Amino acid sequence: VYDYGLTVHDEAWHAIAEDTGTERRLSALSRLRDGRVVGMMAATVNVDTCQIVFNIRPRDGNHLAVWKGARRLRDFSGTELAVSSILPALLVTEDPDDGALLKRGKVYVTPNPSRRFERARAVYGYFEVYNLTPDEHGTTSYETSYTIRKIGQTALQKVLAIFGRQDRPETAVTVERLGETPTANEYVALDLRRAGRGAFRLEVTVR
After folding, report:
1. For range 173-200, the mean pLDDT
2. For residue 57, what is the DSSP state?
3. Which helix (H) or strand (E) holds 27?
């Protein structure tokens, strides 16, 4: 049994949202996948910058783990084309998945907050596109470009092999999309088995 809590503060460290005092068995709180426990908590706030504090501890021990950090919350309520942050994930699927922690539209997502992946498994990234403008037939059209590069190296032959190219310092692929809504749920799955170990950066551009 674990005790855990999430508290959101404004910039002056006044608590503005919290979910605390709940105890559950960890298996009920989270999902176990690949030997890792992944959980999710949510809070609704009306500020653009906040301080987030999360803590968890076993009921029968003296250990306490705490994470805290500042976050700037973006506003997508305007009319300009916008893209969310990329959410690293252990799995993203359109097949019904009762164990997924996040469901957005028709997409089921199991996030990977550690951002560490096994080379033998696909690397997923989930993101959302906002404020798409439909044409006279109600169809939205947009182009998504994915660029991946290995961080901290100048010779990137291994990572370029993902797409069969080894003569450029980075590689990119572009996909055209059609839709019927102003918001799109998008994801990408990358096969990095031939890329070698290391840190990689994925960039997404939507036009």
Report:
1. 87
2. E
3. helix 26-29
Two tokens, residue 170: 């980075």
* Spatial distance between the Cα atoms of 159 and 92, rounded to a whole number of angstroms: 22
Compute the average pLDDT of residues 121-126: 89
Q: What pairing do the DSSP bridges indicate for beta strands 49-58 and 65-72?
A: antiparallel
DSSP state of 176: E
What confidence score (pLDDT) does residue 169 get? 47
The CA-atom distances, in angstroms, between 35 and each of 31, 32, 90 are 10, 6, 12
Q: How much is the pTM?
A: 0.77
Long-range Cβ pairs for the range 58-67 (8 Å, 24+): 58/1, 58/2, 59/1, 59/2, 59/3, 59/23, 60/1
Angstrom CA distances, 5 to 27, 42, 49, 55, 108, stand at 16, 11, 20, 5, 25
Quote the pLDDT of residue 25.
Answer: 53
**195 CB-contact burial (10 Å; exposed 0-12 / middle 13-18 / buried 19+):** buried
